[in-house]
Fold each of these.
Amino acid sequence: MNNLNLRLVPIPNPTLLLHHRQQEWWWQILDPSSEIVNRWNRIFFLISLVALFVDPLFFYLLGFMPHRNCLTMDYGWAGFLVVTRTIVDLFSFLHILIKFRTAYINPNSRVFGRGDLVTNPTLIAFRYLKGNFAIDLAAALPLPQCVVWGVMPIARSRTSNHVNHAISLLIILQYIPRIIVIFPLNARIIKNTGVVAKTAWTGAAYNLILYLLASHVLGAVWYLMSVDRIFTCWKVHCRHERDEIHCRTIYLDCEAVGNDRDIWYNSTKVFQNCDGKNGDFNFGMFAPALHDQVASVNFIEKYFYCLWFGLKNLSSYGQSLEASTYAVETSFGILVCIMGLLFFSLLIGNVQTYLQSTTARLEEWRVKRRDTEEWMNHRQLPPNLQDRVRRFVQYNWLSTRGVKEEEILQALPLDLRREIQKHLCLDLVRRVPFFSKMDNILLDAICQRLVSSLNTKGTYIVREGDPVNEMFFIIRGQVESSTTDGGRSGFFNSITLKPGDFCGEELLTWALMSTSNQNRPASTRTVKCVTEVEAFALRADDLKFFASQFKRLHSKKLQHSFRYYSHQWRTWGACILQAAFRRHRRRRLAEELSRQEESMLFYMREEQDSKFAQKLVSVKQKATTFVNPVADSMPKMFKPDEPSF
């Protein structure tokens, strides 16, 4: 201890490491592929879709008051939409702040793999300001709120037409960056998670919502242009009117009140000339809004009417529209045709693709079943074989639904594939009594090599005398296992195998023998499925691999377990017990006859009766002839080959 030299080295900034560890969450740099960022991207994606839905609703605020025939603004719904728009804009500003604290991948480091993350806040901010910051800021600015709450209260002219034109212009200008924000956000979600919609039905609903959103925007724009077209007709006839009380444009707005406006309203013919019947003004595609008085109904009714109009014309590519020579109107008609063709081909095509993906495997199975039927008819298979083929195809579909498990597992990493096989097979393998005696390491190795096997009723898994290629472990169903001991006359043994039993134990004997060759052993039993059977199969090469790699298979404990649960050994043991019992019975009978003979001879010596002695000899001969057929009627059952444990 005296030679121990300790020296304290001062730290230039002792609180630096502690500061990094205790840094507040709002100052932390986020990983762009982390779970919290992916979740926020999905939330903001939904918020952006809501923003695209809310903005066109401002177009419905303008309308006509039916009993006064004047232009008015629905300030009640305007307040609700302004509050909703403010909440959406708050999410947009929060998204901007999150992007200032989200790292990015250095493009120069993407040589192999993902690349290096840049976590310097200065570099992150500089890159974001040079990139998408201007578009995100333009999409998040509360311009309609500023017009409603700031500009209009202090403006000299507060007519509904002026308010509507200001708000509509800002909505249209801001709608473009809001749409632009959607595309990189959608690409970022696909890059981090693979897909926007995780299920087929969700993907179909997502594309259908986009199609309805396009119809919603189209209907709102059509309504705004309809109101403007009707108001334009009013203004044109108002300028040409030469009555005692001249028409003033201010009279067309509901803000105008007074006796002059009432006198003019009672004597004017402006509204009669713009009713679409008496005048010469051509409303074109906006005539339905005038005839159905869409601009005079309440907010909910006009919205659904315009949504129906947009959906109808978008689906029919605008074929039902009748345009006038008005340039803006014809341009809008051309836009409707292009949008209808584009959105119907893209979005509805995606909906069809998503819905078809849910039944793709079913259609594939139907095609396969039809091909099987054609092949069986072409080959003229007998009806019983055709029924067996149909039952197997049907049972295979009901069990797997067309999913090829082996292909899915082979595409996964080795460690993940091992864990999945262990989860699927370990509990089922432990149901087999022979496997329950093994340790976990050997069971894990066996689970990796097991393959599922499906067999229908009446199928022969293996026949007596055929080479055994697999060892089957029954999970569900019943199997009949019978043997004739190589075709010996007078010998037949049959048992029923249930879940937990196994067959094909000759293969294990062959695998454990050190002198075994490449030829597979012959089966000593015929195995037939009594019901539909689900089993795990262990191939010959895999058993040979286990025998060479795992010395635990050579233990005496497994030897006794194998003999106890092997039906081949059970049959041999039963035959040995029967033969031993019959030998014991014959020996007991011989001993009993010997005792009777001795007693008879004893009485013969006493009575000197030779005739009785002859009778005794004849009885002994009859007993001997009775015993010999019993002993010879038991056929020999050869002992099974014992594995080299």
Amino acid sequence: MPIISVGRDRLFAALGRSYTQEEFEDLCFSFGIELDDVTTEKAIILKEKHLEEEKPSFDDEVIYKIEVPANRYDLLCLEGLALSLRIFNGQEKIPRYTVANISKESMLKMHVKKETSLIRPFVVCAVLRGITFDEASYNSFIDLQDKLHQNICRKRTLVAIGTHDLDTLQGPFTYEALPPPEINFVPLKQVKNFRADELIEFYKSDLKLKKFLHIIEKSKVFPVIYDCNRTVLSLPPIINGAHSAISLKTKNVFIECTATDLTKAKIVLNTMVTTFSAYCERKFEVEPVEVISFDGNSSVYPDLSEYNMEVPLSYITGSIGVPLEVDEVTSLLNRMQLHAEQAGLGDKNISVSVPPTRSDILHPCDVMEDVAIAYGYNNIPRRKLSSLKPLPLNQLSDLIRYEIAMNGFTEVLTWILCSKKENFEMLNRKDDKFTAVIIGNPRSSDFEVVRTSLMPGMLKTVGHNKDHPKPIKIFEVGDVVLLDEKKDVGASNRRLLSALYCGANSGFELIHSLVDRIMEVMGTPFVPVGNNTGYYIELSDEPEFLSGRQAKIIYKGGRIGIFGIVHPEVLNNFDIPDPCSFLELDIEIFL
């Protein structure tokens, strides 16, 4: 969840009253957010510099760190948070955001060239006229851009925001894509003129900007925005031009968002203009810009229209479990910034108008959730659903857990993701490319595949606890995932049982006795080979086990598991000095 830092005193001033910390924590909880930490500006700076924190003085500004929902982009700055809390408290009505009523001929124009489709095809724009910044609101304006870049913009890969002092520019504007050597301008906070290719090299040593260079540096063309005098506004998604930099004196702000995802670009633009139009001379009014595509099609942005949906009262009350009347529901929704009213006289539907600030409202379930938040989760009576029954697979899993624990084994819980090496090479197995589900973009090499066996996790557990007194007797009941063309998602889960005995006297017979006990509990008799009324064992030849000291379990003609003594090479791969015997069994077969 995103965490925003706001000055306590400025926030309380915006809310129109002061709160004790406990009172503010209660308000946050009621609204569905959380006061994560209370600190000071000085403490934050010292922490960033890895210096020892000093005792806070009376003069230090108190900073509240507040955790907000990931899809509530309107809460990512103090202005949006304070407005939402004022509406929630009934101190203010929901604002109506409007687009300035000007003709298309009078609008600023943004012309999009065809070459932009090669790298970053979309752009949306708007103007905030007559805006007044002070130092705090200016810093909040910049900080909101950073928060959006980290959140919905996915570190500028999907959307990049550029803000400019409109009085230093002259429209119409053009959005182009040119070879890097053809782009020349002075970037923000610099005095020297750079070619775009030189700029890429220059920023490779910049701690903040170097992480965005990969987005365009290998492209043959770079996106760039010009005004009619060929003044560079920005080189998205890297840096703005110094010529149009905004300041505390800026009165008219031109906002452009270039993107690979048009929907997210619209959301980002709407978030920026709705939040800071409160500082404009004509409050909550935004001047539109016409974006003209290379094929002649044109669109006007921003789109601040509200969209309507009807939600049945029965859906809301049934999902929450509280009998509410129509007027109660509409009142609760209005507190959550959703215009709501009864759909018609005697109608049991709720008509909801979703403002442009609430891009998170996509479905009636989102409306229902807001009703539940405003009503208060703690006020919803607890009740046990009469139809609530555990799944048979979970009942069976619990039965097996209990039985194995009674046999002196300790349950462990290991990661369902592991590395390719652990899943195959360290078990002496070969990857056939048809078994394991591969993670497309893993955060680390430790989580590259979804496990196809519980064995790697069990052996890692023993390897990290090898100094524990012996014997080590552990088990796990958990899911593995296997590729499966018969499933619509291309893979299927299987619930397995694994058990491991590690000690100097670990042998085949110790784990064999556990197999017999599990089968006895399941009511499955041991039968001669070829008899399908129960289970029997046959010699197996799996590379992770010692040859001649392993067996597969056959039940109703099919293999359901394997057990034996773990191969010394496998033990060495996991840094385990003592012999181990291991069992793995598919328990879904017994349902």
